[in-house]
């Protein structure tokens, strides 16, 4: 129901989305795959790499050129002064007016990224693939815009909610995760499974983490199932199996 009308017109009523995440702060990977229950199964995937650094966003090529898939665009998000969709605006979550009682941070003024201490930047490399002839560019651009809005709103909230999570112990964090998961699943009518955390042996390789992060050993090797989608040349013409039913009927009529 939240999709634009042109997207609803080509989306079946029954489908599922699988999200897999590999979190090893200050480096994380999130991968989504979207499978449609119909004959024109398109290749739809969203792959997001995240790195955190203690700076104001001035690290260049932080993911290295060999990890950038095809054409790319650099976008800077300012949680205080970038516009967000009006329906998501909450005055209590506006960093321009919020002031933290616990940390004394905020409100954020013009130029805050250059003079605020401490400060941390979340760098994200977002790759979107949707291989359906006639819709590839439109869908990929739409998904990038939606992800941009989600990241902007989510990080505004993380700042404005600092007094709720600042100082939490790990046990309190796990309990909060469990309660949130149960409440969310109750809203959509699912039974919440128990959250389990692996306490396996840590990797031997280590990398420096931001000063704002706890000292944590880090392996750059993510699980194989989270490998980034392969770069494929943009199709000039689509094979029969990737055509939408409406396009197939129109082609037959012509």
From TrEMBL:
Recorded GO CC terms: cytoplasm
From start to end residue, where is composition biased (Low complexity)?
A: 203-219
Q: Where is the Phosphatidylinositol transfer protein N-terminal domain?
A: 1-182
SUPFAM superfamilies from the UniProt entry: Bet v1-like
- InterPro entries linked: PI_transfer (IPR001666), PI_transfer_N (IPR055261), START-like_dom_sf (IPR023393)
Region (Disordered) residue spans:
199-254
Superkingdom in the source lineage: Eukaryota
Q: Which molecular-function annotation in GO is an example for this chain?
A: phosphatidylinositol transfer activity
For this entry, the protein name equals PITC1 protein
Q: Which organism is it from?
A: Cephalopterus ornatus
Q: Which gene encodes it?
A: Pitpnc1_1
């Amino acid at each position: 129901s939240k999709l634009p009308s042109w997207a609803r017109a080509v989306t079946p009523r029954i489908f599922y989305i699988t999200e897999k995440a590999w979190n090893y702060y200050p480096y994380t990977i999130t991968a989504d795959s979207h499978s449609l229950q119909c004959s024109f199964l398109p290749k739809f995937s969203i792959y997001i790499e995240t790195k955190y650094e203690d700076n104001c966003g001035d690290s260049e090529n932080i993911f290295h050129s060999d990890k950038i898939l095809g054409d790319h665009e650099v976008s800077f998000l300012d949680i205080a002064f970038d516009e967000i969709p009006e329906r998501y605006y909450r005055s209590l979550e506006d960093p321009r007016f919020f002031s933290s009682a616990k940390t004394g941070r905020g409100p954020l003024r013009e130029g805050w990224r250059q003079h605020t201490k401490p400060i941390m930047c979340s760098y994200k490399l977002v790759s979107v693939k949707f291989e359906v002839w006639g819709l590839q560019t439109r869908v990929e651009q739409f998904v990038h815009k939606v992800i941009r809005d989600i990241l902007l709103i989510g990080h505004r909230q993380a700042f404005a909610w600092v007094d709720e999570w600042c100082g939490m112990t790990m046990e309190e964090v796990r309990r909060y995760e469990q309660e949130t998961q149960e409440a969310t699943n109750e809203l959509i009518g699912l039974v919440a499974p128990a959250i389990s955390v692996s306490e396996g042996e840590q990797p031997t390789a280590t990398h420096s983490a931001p000063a704002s992060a706890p000292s944590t050993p880090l392996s750059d090797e993510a699980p194989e199932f989270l490998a980034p989608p392969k770069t494929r040349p943009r199709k000039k013409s689509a094979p029969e199996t990737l055509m939408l039913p409406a396009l197939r009927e129109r082609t037959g009529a012509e």
